[in-house]
């Protein structure tokens, strides 16, 4: 057993006894885990997030910088005209990659980032509505090959793959029902065989919600509700940095909240679902130019759609009372034509305590949001490690 | 520095070095925290909940039994005609008390439990609708005196007080708006001055939700949505054993989800709120006997009310997709007259993935649910301790 040595610059001893080393490793893992989940942080932010004293943190960060597990950099975005640029630490970009794939209805997107939250490559291909899933997967794999070749990226340090698919996915992507379960198994098995790393699968709209909460319009808030208004209408809820899955994998299915109790039956099993009234598919049946705000008919359609969306958001926000509501999809790009009637209906149907505390905003990310969400899923999942992250290690298991 | 000794019965050493002792203390605190939150558990359940190996757990439990921090008992409820009674461990009932107070609209309830989740005294007094808050507090304090005298209870080991009040309470009971903030400050200051322990304040319907999730119809599930149908209509959401507060303290305000977009204005600021249609106040204006199922008019009213409640629950469940929906309050006691139309409307307006995964059930606890929820709030809050519970200790802070 080594003796514990202490000095000013290394208060807890770098050559330490077994249990002391274990405790220190726990702290190192806490720092690594926070940086992996949140991206580059200043030392002050890191101290707050890890709940470690400045002195302990300083020693831990120094050790990790020496080991090249971390790197130090100037935060580019922090300059903003006042104050000095802030020094931030992040995981070493060479420490690993995460691959995000969105197997969308009409579009396959692949995005690659490193563990320092730097996006290093991104690409997409269109596909037909009814493209079989094996073919969609092949398109995604071809895209991965293309991107890694063009950008000279080696996937040897790939940490995991996060995949967005259409339709509900149960808790932790572990199951689905009928065809959905088959699809999830196909995606997971194919990608696991190809890359040999953990594969996380979730609904692609939910992944877009997660990406908006990590990098987009909901960055830095504790609770965000996301609604996507496109050919389909879906959503997702992020609480404390994690997606709410729901018991049946259907949390955030805001497109299937009813806006007319006697409305038409929906394929989901419900009746009068929001999606039937405000999806781009439905609206384009009424006016081909619905996204063109110069068109009178389009403006009328958007006003009614905005009111219906506002009512559904009111019901959802009276339920979870999030800090921010993020609205994405093509319809959100019509701006005030949708948002003004939406806000009016929202205010009219929410508890004052709810609408006082919530901010409604447009999505900040582009069409790669779901693929980025796949990356977020990889980065927020614990890396394979002999010690549990964020928990004290089990003495017996890790120190026999 | 003591030498680390190891033996078969005490694999990690009871007289140990500083850091080893710290790690061991972390494990002990993990065990104590889980038992405080969940109540008596078998060793198998405890191993699962603490994520400790059976060997480590066995040693930790033995030490804590020796210290009288824990006691061992036969689980009464586990006999159930088959198998042997299961041996459970719990915190020592002498280890402390928790006081739950419900300052309801028409009723003051006080309930006292020990840290082993045993309820040791409970009582209530009625009060008029407009009783001032200072008077309500005095009634509660008189009731505490009465109960402790009658049951010979000493509050010297009181760990905390949890209080339910009417109206929204922001995150962690730290603030409110206007009169609500004043009320919360009055309650907290009065009780802190009287008992000298931490005082937790939350909305009393939310506390009833928490109690149902810990001891009632939602016990053992990961996500529960609670709806209370009484003179007012409110609710609460419990995820992973914790109440969802919401950004403005209004999560679970299901009584203010709109069922008629052009309905009458509500004092909450919304319009066509569920509460306006199904509160006992409204229903009794239409029939004094609304709770009497032998009355034709009552049955018709309950059928319509059930349908409206089912629609609102559908919207809420499409949003959070909980495992169980628990319905409490006087209206729930009418049974199938309410539940049948409720279930029909619910099924008609939910995504199939949602209604397949959710169970709707009546509340299991009585009128002391909110006071019990106050107790749950005390027991699920970290006890004041030099080391953070469920987190590895900060070496600097706890081992200078």
UniProtKB/TrEMBL annotation, chains A, B:
Gene3D superfamilies linked to this entry: 3.30.420.40, Winged helix-like DNA-binding domain superfamily/Winged helix DNA-binding domain
Residue ranges the record marks as coiled coil: none
Pfam family, one: ROK
Descriptive protein name: ROK family transcriptional regulator
Taxonomic classification: Bacteria, Bacillati, Actinomycetota, Actinomycetes, Propionibacteriales
UniProt similarity note: Belongs to the ROK (NagC/XylR) family.
Domain of life, per lineage: Bacteria
Segments of this protein annotated with the region Disordered: 1-21
